[in-house]
Design goal:
Layout (H helix, E strand, L loop, with lengths): L9 E3 L5 E4 L5 E5 L10 H30 L9 H27 L3
Antiparallel strand pairs: 1-2, 2-3
Helix pairs in contact: 1-2
């Protein structure tokens, strides 16, 4: 699988919104389709695609970290319950912070 066009992506609103990558010389990545229905949300669709793509890496990393943090709840050989709790809480708190940041990025309005 080849790498996708570098993020962050951006959108130029319009009847057919253009999604492009400033990191790739401003080349178009995608377009939302025009529709004769005036209620068709082409600009909102483009904004949603941009937010989802731009937040993808952080969301994936946050989910992986949550899984790893959960695995850290298993005591290591010879570790006391307090040591395990301290290690696990620190890892869990960092994972939740990363998840909150990724969610905020995904929910951000342009």
């Amino acid at each position: 699988m080849t790498d996708h066009t570098p993020t962050p992506w951006a959108a130029v609103p319009g009847e057919e919104s253009v999604i492009y990558s400033p990191q790739a010389g401003g080349r178009a990545v995608a377009r939302t389709l025009a529709n004769p229905d005036p209620t068709w949300p082409a600009e909102a669709n483009a904004a949603f695609i941009v937010r989802a793509c731009n937040a993808h890496d952080e969301m994936l990393a946050a989910l992986k970290e949550l899984i790893e943090a959960n695995a850290a709840a298993v005591p290591k050989p010879g570790e006391t319950g307090l040591e395990r709790n301290d290690r696990w809480h620190a890892r869990r708190n960092a994972a939740f912070a990363a998840a909150r940041a990724a969610i905020a990025k995904a929910e951000a309005q342009p």
